[in-house]
């Protein structure tokens, strides 16, 4: 049974997570960079996180995709729609693993996910919760055409809420 639609872009394949993705997933979540997306966490908690991602697809019909670099087949990160208990509304979330930053892959993946969410899940004008210290995420949100809507809190921590444009209006550079 396939729960997760596959999306292909020029350089990426957005797909469901597989059990053999655990090493790359756990390596990212063991590091300090994961602090902006719920880490650091150990391998067992990483496994629970990966299975929770797949559970969201089963329960809600949308979720995070694994971002695979098509040329190498390597797992490069995750992108998609996050809607945990306590979220005000569905969020466009994204993160890349070490070695995949600085090449526009997050932008490419986020655009594809945002377009698919609007067209197939009726989720448009998504938000992104961003830690004010996460300068890479803030830069990407701006590049995607999102605007700072308000300051807020998520899980008891300060964040900024960034609103993405309607897909019909979005013409990012």
Structure description:
Helix content is 30%, strand content 26%. It contains 4 helices and 8 strands, in the order ββααβββαβαββ. The chain has helices spanning 22-30, 43-60, 105-120, 135-143, and strands spanning 7-8, 12-15, 64-69, 75-82, 91-96, 127-130, 147-154, 157-163. The strands form 2 sheets. The protein has a 5-stranded antiparallel sheet with strand order 1-2-3-4-5. A 3-stranded antiparallel sheet has the order 6-8-7, with helices on one face. β7 (147-154) and β8 form a beta hairpin. The longest helix has 18 residues, at 43-60. It is globular, with a radius of gyration of 15 Å. The termini are far apart. The model has no long low-confidence stretch (mean pLDDT 92).
How far apart are the termini? 37 Å
The amount of helix comes to 25-40%
What's the SSE pattern? Answer: EEHHEEEHEHEE
Q: Count the helices. How many?
A: 4
Would you summarize the structure shown here?
The chain has 173 residues and is an alpha+beta fold.
Topology:
Layout: E1 7-8, E2 12-15, H1 22-30, H2 43-60, E3 64-69, E4 75-82, E5 91-96, H3 105-120, E6 127-130, H4 135-143, E7 147-154, E8 157-163
Antiparallel strand pairs: 1-2, 2-3, 3-4, 4-5, 6-8, 7-8
Helix pairs in contact: 1-2
List its traits.
globular, 173 residues
């Amino acid at each position: 049974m396939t729960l997760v639609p596959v999306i292909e872009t020029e350089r990426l394949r957005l797909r469901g997570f597989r059990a053999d993705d655990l090493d790359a997933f756990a390596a990212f979540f063991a590091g300090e960079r994961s602090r902006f997306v719920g880490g650091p966490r150990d391998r067992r908690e990483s496994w629970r996180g990966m299975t929770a991602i797949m559970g969201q697809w089963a329960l809600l019909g949308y979720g995070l995709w694994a971002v695979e670099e098509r040329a190498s087949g390597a797992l490069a990160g995750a992108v998609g729609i996050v809607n945990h208990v306590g979220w005000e509304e569905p969020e466009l979330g994204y993160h890349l693993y070490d070695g995949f930053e600085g090449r526009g892959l997050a932008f490419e993946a986020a655009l594809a996910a945002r377009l698919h969410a609007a067209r197939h899940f009726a989720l448009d004008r998504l938000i992104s919760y961003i830690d004010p210290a996460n300068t890479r995420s803030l830069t990407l949100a701006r590049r995607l055409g999102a605007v700072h809507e308000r300051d807020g809190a998520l899980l008891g921590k300060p964040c900024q809420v960034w609103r993405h444009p309607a897909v019909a209006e979005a013409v990012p550079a």
